[in-house]
Specification:
The protein is an all-alpha fold. It is 78% helix and 0% strand. The longest helix has 30 residues. It is globular and about 55 Å long. It starts with a helix and ends in a 17-residue tail after the last helix.
């Protein structure tokens, strides 16, 4: 695996920390800015909305930019908005910085996925995808718990400063590891031709399944802190431990999926989704029991990110003739779920259904994902021929 692919994973680690660290900072942000927990949770949704809007637009922009320049530009904007977020005392400004940071992150993801896949052969695409996505799981293992610790010790703003600082070594590594010119030898495909991929029913259904799986994941993940402190009975000091457990599971799930996704995608997706639906229901029922809650948080992290990584790989397999836009579609679907999940969880909390409510919503979302997957398995269609130099997967 080329070193530059791991550098992309490092940069994704810094950005993933920002995207998910709010799950351990909600109470501090809500108290400091005088807003409700639901409003604080919407900061996660705002980031996801920015990713959804930004992914297709920045992917189109990335078609003509030299990849190193594009990656450094997006990462620079990301750092700048975190500095503003750390300094502001306004909820509205913080909300705006989350959207702006997400646009930059979307641009980075769109270019990073294409760059990583361009550096490896067809049989290493799942592993390359897993390395890039693995940056997010390392963020869950290290970055998110560290952000929670910083928030507990020095306030939530310190976590924003930390993200900005961690991004600087990633930028330096990108400057050295990623080639500066435009890629050579890539098939020249028009933007209009790539956008036609959106009309393929099997791709649309795959993206829908992906969005539902991610909505279920982030519905619970965004409200883990109030769940474990007010239902499970852990003190605030346990929050980083619980978040780290989820991250350890996520890392394990991505690592395993990277080895299985190219050869057994349907088994990984089908078994993973079924287990996720059962697991969220089990967590809702047993959240008051510390041992069961900890075990399920670990397991659900592995299942959620292992299944999600495999679904990303399937998007690329279903759109081999859309080398730029396939990654942006996957990024957008991922973040549609990441936006919808916290919003639905906040609605359930606001309706007075209790702190277990987001977990039950996750279970229901997984039932919807299973129904969509059933429609996908029943839909006709084949994968189109891959462009010259690529290998189309077997359906």
């Amino acid at each position: 695996m080329p070193f530059a692919v791991y550098v992309l994973g490092l940069a994704v680690f810094a950005q993933g920390t920002s995207e998910f660290m709010l799950s351990g900072l909600l109470s501090g942000i809500a108290g400091d800015l005088h807003v409700s927990l639901g409003a604080a949770g919407l900061l996660t949704s705002a980031f996801a909305v920015g990713m959804v809007v930004g992914a297709p637009l920045t992917a189109l922009a990335g078609r003509t930019w030299p990849r190193r320049r594009a990656l450094l530009f997006f990462l620079g904007v990301f750092v700048a908005v975190h500095v503003v977020g750390a300094l502001t005392s306004s909820y509205a400004v913080l909300l705006a910085t989350r959207v702006a940071g997400a646009l930059a992150n979307a641009g980075f993801w769109a270019v990073a996925l294409v760059t990583a896949l361009a550096m490896v052969g067809p049989r290493q695409r799942a592993r390359a995808t897993a390395v890039v996505v693995g940056g997010v799981t390392v963020a869950c293992v290290v970055g998110v718990p560290a952000g929670a610790v910083l928030g507990e010790l020095w306030g939530w703003r310190s976590a924003f400063w930390a993200v900005a600082l961690v991004s600087l070594p990633a930028a330096a590594a990108l400057l050295v590891a990623v080639p500066g010119g435009r890629p050579d030898g890539a098939p020249q495909v028009s933007a209009r031709s790539e956008l036609r991929v959106l009309a393929r029913p099997r791709l649309l259904l795959t993206l829908l399944v992906m969005a539902l799986v991610q909505a279920a994941t982030f519905c619970t993940f965004s409200y883990l802190e109030p769940l474990v402190t007010r239902v499970t009975g852990f003190g605030a000091g346990w929050v980083p431990v619980v978040l780290a457990l989820f991250g350890v599971g996520s890392f394990a799930g991505v690592a395993l999926a990277g080895r299985l996704a190219d050869t057994r995608p349907y088994a990984v997706i089908g078994l993973g989704m079924t287990a996720l639906a059962l697991g969220w229901a089990a967590l809702a029922l047993t959240a008051a029991h510390p041992a069961a809650a900890l075990a399920l948080v670990l397991l659900q992290g592995a299942l959620a990110f292992g299944t999600g990584t495999t679904l990303i790989t399937r998007v690329f397999h279903l759109a081999p003739d859309a080398p730029t836009m396939a990654g942006s579609f996957a990024t957008a679907a991922f973040n549609v779920g990441a936006a919808a999940g916290p919003w639905l969880g906040g609605l359930a909390l606001g309706a007075g259904f209790g702190f277990r409510a987001p977990v039950w919503v996750s279970a229901l979302l997984m039932c919807a994902a299973l129904a969509a997957a059933g429609a996908l398995s029943a839909s006709p269609g084949t994968v189109p021929s891959a462009p010259s130099g690529a290998t189309a997967p077997t359906e």
